[in-house]
Amino acid sequence: MKKLRDALPLLVFTFLTQTIQAQNVGINDAGTPGNVSAMLDVESTSKGLLIPRMTAAQRGVIGSPAEGLLVYQNDGDAGFYFYNGTEWELILGRSKGWSLEGNSGTDVANNYVGTADEEDLSIGTNGVGRIRVVGDGAGTVINGAMPLAGTILSSYSIGNDDAITGLALEDGDGVWGLASGAGDGVYGYSPNGTGVWGDSGGTGDGVFGANNAGGTGVYALNTGTGRALEVAKS
After folding, report:
1. How is residue 174 annotated by DSSP?
2. pLDDT per position as a tens digit, 60-97
3. What is the dihedral angle through the alpha carbons of 159, 163, 169, 172, rounded to the nearest 10 degrees?
4. 113 Cβ partners below 8 Å, 6+ apart?
5. Which residues are CB-contacts of 147 (< 8 A; sequence separation ≥ 6)?
6. Cα–Cα dist 217/186, whole Å
7. Whole-structure pTM over 0.70, yes or no?
8. In whole angstroms, what is the distance from residue 93 CA to residue 104 CA?
9. By CB neighbour count within 10 A (0-12 exposed, 13-18 middle, 19+ buried), where does 218 fall?
10. Quick check: helix, strand or coil at residue 13?
């Protein structure tokens, strides 16, 4: 009888262990079983789930982290990190990433869309880069790899399309450019089309270019059958 009494706790422990291993676990105030689709189901309306918290250095020395392992880093670039099988990744929220629905509370002095190094920023559609902002500040180019030397904005035409078309329906200027140095206020080149084209439907200018130094207000070049400069007044 004594042997049976001594063995009873071991039998109960073995039974409970096998039972827990064979089913999901529910942790809640009501004592209800966990959801059948989850190995662990934690339910509460007044408390949360606390993920292990650690520093970046402590996270970095976790031995053989499993893919999907989750921790909360509480120093440096703090936040939730998960291991993707190769490296740790920070789970971004709206405070760190740009949302498709927009962000609020941004500071123009500190927040921007772009790169934090000298790599170019490319904006594209359908898997093709359409606008490139050059990383060293050399300028911005549309439909091209690099802007023309010395230009702030360069636009390249593919096929028979216009590189830049300016149309003012009211009192503005169709194309307006100002260079305060030795550059050109407006520069256009086309082998067969029109180098510079602007149209104003109001009291503004079809094309307006100014230079207060040694450059050219408006410069248009055509080496083919088109027109170097065309200005229309509607």
Report:
1. S
2. 999 999 999 999 999 998 999 999 999 999 998 666 77
3. -170
4. 98, 121
5. 134, 138, 139, 140, 141, 153, 154
6. 6
7. no
8. 13
9. buried
10. helix
